[in-house]
Amino acid sequence: MGRETWGSRIGFILAAAGSAIGLGNVWKFPYKAGESGGAAFVLVYLLCIAFVGLSIMIAEIIMGRSTQLDMVGGFRKLSPGSPWFLAGALGIASGFVILSYYSVVGGWTLAYICKAAAFRFAAFHDPAEAGASFERFTAHPVLPVACHALFMALCMYIVARGVRGGIERWNNILMPALFLLLLALLVRGLTLPGAGEGLAFFLRPDFSKFHWGRTTLVALGHAFFSLSLGMGAMFTYGSYLSPDVNVPRASFYIVLLDTAISMLAGVAIFTAVFAMGLRPDAGPGLVFHTLPVVFTLMPGGYVFGVVFFVLLALAALTSAISLLEVVCAYFVDERRWPRRTAVLRMGTLILLLGVPAALSFGPLAGAKIFFGRTFFDFEDVLSSNYMLPFGGLLLSIFVGWVWGADRAVEACRIGNPRFRSARLWAFAIRYLAPLAVAAIILHQLEILPRVGALLAGGG
Ligand code: PHE
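^ thats the input. predicted complex w/ phenylalanine below
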């Protein structure tokens, strides 16, 4: 049986952009930018995306396309008999970990679509009330688990239909829908009286909160999460590509779309928050505590409230699909399982793993047995701060030095004979990306700060 492929180039780009664009763009990016000095953070983030993110994106996709295999099989094919396949296994493990808690948040967005549609937001007069309602919901012993299961079921349904008939087809519908919904929100935000203040908050550099070392590392870590790098999502999607596609150019479009959505979401959210005289609260609170109040207060808020949570759910779903596909591709390619069997078994396993994550705000909130964290927080920190950057580090070292930048450049030339920035890319993947990522990991492990303090103390 032949391996599956994408039906069209645009189908691949939309699917990859669908993976990249998710919860990371719509709530994480705006609040991180707001917290770390606004435009100054945005600037550093854009540099990280341009120099590290884009080059790892090209590396992942080209490795997938060249091997036409899942991540473990791909590493094995390029470096037979070596332990490098473990880098692929790490990616598959990351898929498990990320999807099991990502789907919990996906479930919350489904619940909030219902709340918005049922006029529930009308009862909220300030973020404290909305916050209390959010906490009641997430602490419930059954509802968050049920929503998580529903979200996983949607995800499994789409992945079970295959690359073309499921993933590509649904992304072709969901991604344009997402752009239109975001555009509607953007126009609404910008036309509210007092929108300028929100725009200023998001785009005015505030160097007082800017911290070179820390901000750069936060920006770089977020670039990985937002672009779906370091765990094989782009690798796996790349493995369904045909040779005639120009990988560097496609990667550029994917990165551009992801970045554009982050910026548009930031503007749409902060203009609305400021116009309604609310504070740009941090973290998950921004979306679930503050925005329901914004929608209650603003003209046409009912419609935009529903629109917003539909948008968030779609964005989360198209990312979740790519996470499940990474896991399933391994069982389909390496273990020869039929796709449906792989989806059913692995989807169910991830669903079960997500149950303690879904209960982390209620019955299991006190069970901080994972390095002092709840299961949800533990999975989040483990994957975003360690697994993804480490996966990206291994991949860039592999492509730059083991497979070899020259061979990788040749592979890119198959669909792009000129590849004008080949030398720049080879430099980035051999030196820039591994060094930058190694710096994040050392910082996370608190090794760099200690060395810094030691040097400062010694000097
Ligand atoms: N990029 C997705 C987001 O921004 C999350 C994700 C990470 C998806 C890693 C797949 C792989 O929400």
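The longest helix spans residues 375-413.
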